[in-house]
Amino acid sequence: MTAEPPAVRVTHLGVRYRERIALHAVEFDVAPGEFVALAGPNGSGKTTLLRALLGFLTPDEGTVELFGTPVAHLSIRERARRVAWVPQEETLRDDVPLAQYVLYGRYPHHRPLDRETESDRTLVARILREVGLAERAADGILSISGGERQRAILARALAQGTPLLLLDEPTSHLDIAHQLDLLTRVRALSRSEGVTAIAALHDLNLAARFADRIVVLSRGRRVADGSPRNVLSEDLLARVWGVDAQLAVDSRSGLPYLLPRRLISETRPAPSALSPGPVHVVGGGGAGAPLLRGLIDEGFRVTAGALHLLDTDAETAESLGVVAAVEGPFAPLSSETRTHHRTLLADARVIVVAPFAVGPSNLANLEDVLPFASSTPVIVVDPVPGRVLDFAEGRATAAREALRSSGATFVPDSETAVREVVRLLAGARAPAPEATAER
Amino acid sequence: MGGGLLVVLSALLGAVDIPIRLGLQILLHEVTGGRVFPDACAGTGLSSTRCDAYTFIVWNLYLPEVLLALIVGAALGLAGGALQGVFRNPLADPFLLGISSGGTLGAAIIYVYHIGVGNADLYLPAFAFLGAVSTGLLILTVARGRYSSVETLLLTGVALANLLSAILSLVLLYNPAGSEQVTFWLLGGLGLADWQVDGIAFGSVLALGTLLSLYGRELNLLQLGSDVAQSAGVDASAVRLRVILLASLVTAVAVAFTGIIGFVGLVSPHIVRRLAGSDYRVVLPGSAAIGALFLLGARDISYLAFPGSLFPLGIFTAFAGVPFFLFLLYRQRRLAPMGGG
User: Which of A47, A101, A280, A285 could form a disulfide with A348 if both were Cys (CB 3.0 to 4.6 A apart)?
Assistant: First the structure.
């Protein structure tokens, strides 16, 4: 017995629009009867992927197979008997009766001069019952409500009687009740009739609630794929959507859901020359990145140093537009870099020391803070009290103890450090950037 | 039944008054090959020369004119319905797209450069037909690129129509002698009608119209957008090309024999939609029927309103059609807002 071919097999799919890459090396299979949600930010390639599955566009690379046959080998009519499409909306001009509109879906099953048969009508009546529009069968398609319209579009697609259904943001114009209603119906179909469904969905919570599987696209690439439980994470939201979100689990269904909190800094108003600060972060190796982000988010001007090129902190600083004293990769700090670093330290109104690993090449970072500790408030992030990442033969530990004795504040984590800076500079802070950034 | 009566009565209307009884006798005589009313003018006391003259007028002038009005009206109505369907635009008609401007330019070239003098009956329709068809083909060729959409196609047609009008004006500016005849052509009329013309027109419109009417279901689906149509199994771009080509050909036949007769193609599909709904399987043949009646009615009313004058039909269709159309539009508006558009 040969194995059943997948409903959809996408192999190394690449699509370019002129110079812009819309899809790159996308691969995945969809098993018959599966309900897959396609997620991703605007412009991530969801619609392009759906159009490739429908055979609307010719890929520049790779292939799409529907039930074992390359979509390019199918005639338009054959395709329409395998896959039906529910668009985001249809521009309807003519007020045709609903039942007739749904009958349009039978087109691929007719030959040129055929009239609709009795069995077509029976089928349409059954579908209209299934989508809850039996009473509206004689009404004009323009006279029904938006929620009913979307169900009518679904009904027209179902009338094609295809084993595969593609939906492009089918719920984007619907209120929450109609969103749930439509997706419930699609899932019921997939369960009861074995219809395979692939739906582009913006709402990740809806995707998690209804889909068996979520495929995430970002900039034309498949970046995550799996069950909602495995795919949805705070990290994914931050990486793909640039959104700071909290992941929670619904206690009744056990399904994950997301509470979006705010956009991550890039899109927040950048600190200006008038913003309070500067606050100087001493870090390296990525230990300073949360501090840099947190402080920028709070609206402070931030400087950093001395960082090594290519290190995570240096890249974070650059992407956030933070002024930093920078040294070449892995090199010991030069006297120029140290001078630059000392200038930044001298200008700072608060100095924050990240829990960075200290070795011979960056020990000077820590030691240079000491002369300023008497005049400038210093906050030291100290996650595990007494344990210092000291690869400099105890000199790092000594330097930190010196900071402690000259009055530096020790805090357990970066968030507390940011709160401490906020408290210290409370009077000087610009009026609540929170209010503009949170939605 | 009613249509037949209208045709018979219309055949008695024209520049010369025909007494009703005499006219009916002549028609019966001719239709039955002389078996009924062996003497067509029996009981009217007309001399045989005058009887022959009346017979000629009714049978060889009026009736062909009536039939040509029906054929051309049907052709224009059908082309209008098909083009409105394919462009999803209630304003589309053969004139907006420059197809008839192309025909006019073809006709103008005949008059202005004295081509085929003495054989105008052949050359005039031929050139008008070629002008119209090549315009249709040009639109399709120009707009056949990779990024063409319905809108591109429509705009190409509109741009081309303007270009052709400009060329026509230029030709006439430098050859004022031909302008009077060309103006008459621009106004449209049934003057070329005879049995031969009717035969050619009928045959070609019937054939093209039948083909065009087969695209009703595809046009229904195209109304939902080409993507949706395609997902439901319609080869949208192929259907578009074929329908525009057929509509151009049908229009070209009409323009070839009657010049530019406006408004029939625009208004007929709208009337059908108001009366019978938007199913293109009904709209296409319905527009042909309404177009035929509309043009015949316009001809009759022009003769009734201005007896004895040869009023250009193209002017009259607008005079009669516009108020009627606006009435329909606003009467319906009050009942239900028109979608889209």
Answer: A280
